[in-house]
Specification:
seven-stranded parallel sheet, 13 strands, 16 helices, single chain, alpha/beta, six-stranded parallel sheet, globular, 412 residues
Length: 412
């Protein structure tokens, strides 16, 4: 039976890409899909053939930490502050066209409230490591490794407690959004995640740190990787039949001040008997970077095609790039620059599929690490093991089954 799904999305590249992949999976099973997101997402959404609505209301912030550190400002400006406006816009869109269920970006805290008010099920989609803390797993942004000793476990438990305590500071703002929809207040911010029909983690269960137990609505569905067909065509720059190692160097497509790190990485590769392609992305396209003979700089390239021809990947640690590299069985040098990248990098390291360096690492350190990744086969063995698990998860298309289940349960 076909269902109609509404997908509220942040619209930023790291979130819209997985949402578009989810939409394609749902549409391929005959379901109706439409989006609501920020206005600049209209072009890629409509180009993919989906109906689009933009947010209409302007968020009214009640800042708790107007001059606080980055995480608190993100709670104000991105998560809790916009909740009431996003809830109202989502409620209007639910009423505009038939809607059997929502698949909402986990960071859009108002959209699941709108679904609750409308009496329809909502699944939250986490495109990377879970925003909802999981027992025994370091919270996102903590930079902690999986605990293997009582001391480490105590540190993780304390970090999870701090994480939820900070989120609970914004509980009054979240309850204001609930009151605007005539919903009863929450007692704890985690109710937002736990009352949703599903919390879908678009990360490999084999790659993530294992939880002691999962809340009953949590499901791992594997990474949602887009087709990367937005990139320009490419021609392999290395001689045919060459047996030299090859690398793909790819840092963020958004501005993370990555130019210096990229230049040092390119300089390091100049001294290694290998070839490389470095994709610049829109932020660095046209930047005054210098490339040696064995490194080709490109504005973009289809990563899936390139990864079939390289030996390793050097990256900032974006979840999509890392998951794609592992799917191809490629070891990684990860140079995290913020957001969830430190957490992703620690998982790469923990599984033995790569190594971590600071983005400020000198060229000599980059040379040493790349040489290790080339010469020590255990990195590739570990990457291939994870890659097989990721390919199986992608093949299972678990998201579609979960969305059909919540819509079917509601209909019955």
């Amino acid at each position: 039976m076909p269902y109609n799904f509404l997908l509220p999305s942040w619209g930023s590249p790291g979130h819209l890409g997985p949402m578009l992949t989810a939409a394609q999976q749902l549409r391929s099973r005959g379901h109706g899909v439409r989006f609501i997101a920020r206005a600049d997402a209209r072009v890629p959404v409509e180009a993919a053939g989906y109906s689009f609505a933009a947010w209409q209301r302007t968020p009214s912030f009640t800042p708790i930490a107007p001059h606080g550190e980055g995480t608190r400002q993100a709670y104000d400006q991105l998560l809790f502050g916009p909740a009431a406006a996003r809830a109202a816009d989502t409620r209007d869109e639910i009423g505009r066209a038939p809607t059997d269920a929502l698949l909402s970006d986990i960071g859009l805290l108002g959209s699941p409230l709108a679904a609750e008010a409308a009496g329809i099920p909502c699944a939250l989609l986490a495109p990377t490591i879970s925003l909802r803390p999981l027992p025994g797993v370091p919270p996102i942004g903590s930079r902690l490794r999986a605990p293997h000793t009582p001391k480490a476990r105590a540190e993780v438990d304390a970090a999870n407690n701090r994480f939820t305590e900070v989120m609970n500071e914004w509980l009054p703002m979240l309850n204001e959004a609930r009151a605007s929809l005539s919903l009863a207040p929450f007692d704890h911010v985690l109710e937002l995640f736990d009352r949703s029909a599903r919390l879908l983690l678009a990360i490999s269960a084999a790659f993530d740190f294992p939880a002691d137990e999962l809340p009953k609505n949590v499901r791992y569905i594997g990474p949602l990787l887009d087709s990367s067909d937005w990139s320009k065509p490419w021609t392999a720059p290395w001689p045919q039949g060459s047996d030299r190692p090859r690398a793909l160097v790819s840092f963020s497509t958004t501005n993370q001040n990555q130019a210096d790190a990229l230049q040092r990485t390119v300089n390091a590769i100049a001294g290694i008997e290998m070839d490389a392609v470095a994709t610049l992305g829109p932020e660095l396209d046209g930047a005054p970077l210098r490339s040696p003979k064995n490194v080709t700089l490109l504005p973009s390239a289809p990563h899936d095609v390139v990864m079939k021809e390289v030996s390793l990947v050097v990256t900032h640690g974006g979840h999509g790039t890392v998951s794609r590299a592992l799917r191809h069985g490629l070891p990684l040098l990860v140079m995290p620059m913020g957001r969830d990248q430190d957490d992703v990098a620690l998982r790469v390291e923990a599984h033995g599929a790569g190594l971590i360096l600071s983005p400020t690492a000198p060229e000599a350190e980059i040379v040493a690490v790349i040489n290790r990744l080339i010469r020590e086969p255990h990195f590739r063995v570990a990457a291939r093991r994870l890659g097989e698990a990721i390919k199986a998860e992608i093949q299972s298309a678990g998201l579609v089954g979960e969305m059909e289940e919540i819509a079917r349960t509601q209909a019955s």
